[in-house]
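Changelog entry

Holo records now carry the ligand SMILES as an explicit input line rather than a separate metadata file. Below, a converted record for arginine, shown in the new format.
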Amino acid sequence: MTAPSTIATKFLPAKDQLGLVAVGFSGGQCKPGVDAAPSALIESGLLTDIQETLEYTLYHDGIVHGYADHLPPPGTDLPLHIAGAKAPMINPIAVSNVTHALCDQVYEHASKGRLVLTLGGDHSIAIGSVAGTAKAVRERHNNSEMALVWVDAHADINTPESSGSGNIHGMPVSFLTGITKAPKENPNIFGWIKDEHRINPSKIVYIGLRDVDIPEKKILKDHGIRAFSMHDVDRYGIGKVMDMALDHINCGPGQEGMPIHLSFDVDALDPYVAPSTGTPVRGGLTLREGDFICEVIHETGYLVAMDLVEVNPALSGDGPESIGAKETIRAGCSLVRCALGECLLG
Ligand SMILES: NC(=[NH2+])NCCC[C@H](N)C(=O)O
Ligand SMILES: [Mn+2]
Ligand SMILES: [Mn+2]
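Structure line, unchanged by the conversion:
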């Protein structure tokens, strides 16, 4: 593959420095257990692989953040009723506060030129991780925008009005694009998100979609957002889909490119490979297709940050031995290693 142009190479984080944020947060949805994912991923040896096999210098405070200081007192974070909404927003203050704190942590790493890995947690945390990366990229690179590659069975672009569940893990992209602003019912909620944190909808690419709500389809269409569903993966194959995806964000061979934030929801993978997740949907990516997406993004040289979210070891459905949870954790570790450069021969 052609080497990235010299202009674009300036965007890149230091090749061998990785900032890690472990986010044990589950308030963006209702199923307990997703907060245990960062510890499970770490215990399975992910950080050893990152340091010893992939030879990154790791910057990590050693804490799996539960953000206790940022959580409102029990019983005070009431569901927020939004005019015209189908369901109230669940845990709005907790999600807003935690993502704000995470944004600062990710920004801290990214502004020092480190590649940032955020281990969730449910997908609401991407509000913080993407916002922090976008801000650092703008500061470091002369106000440059950033591309967002969102690999998921779901579009996660509901507004508080369109969401049928009220779960904020189904809304992060609408907040990150500014399609949704802080709700007038309580402007403090996500009031911290400013233009410097936001993503241009034309710089988003989805891969793996297969469970998109009807109002979300309209939002994607109205904003002209590029999305590759499982139908596209079947039709073109993952190789061609990745070519088209990178072409859309100008990160293909010989193109000028821009920094990429990869947000990987493990439910993009088929439940055969990754059953332990809160909202599994049949007909997903094989592990090789998931790994391939990560390898191709790595190969561009433009990766600046990655999230791995929605691993929920408590939801294995196969008893105490929990083979499903182990497999899901293994799959998650594989995705991360591929995004960090494993599997390529040279
Ligand atoms: N990050 C996820 N797993 N999101 C699932 C979202 C499901 C549904 N579209 C909702 O808004 O509630
Ligand atoms: Mn999902
Ligand atoms: Mn998601």
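Spot-checked after migration. The radius of gyration is 18 Å. The beta strands are 17-23, 57-59, 64-65, 115-119, 147-151, 204-209, 226-229, 260-265, 303-309.
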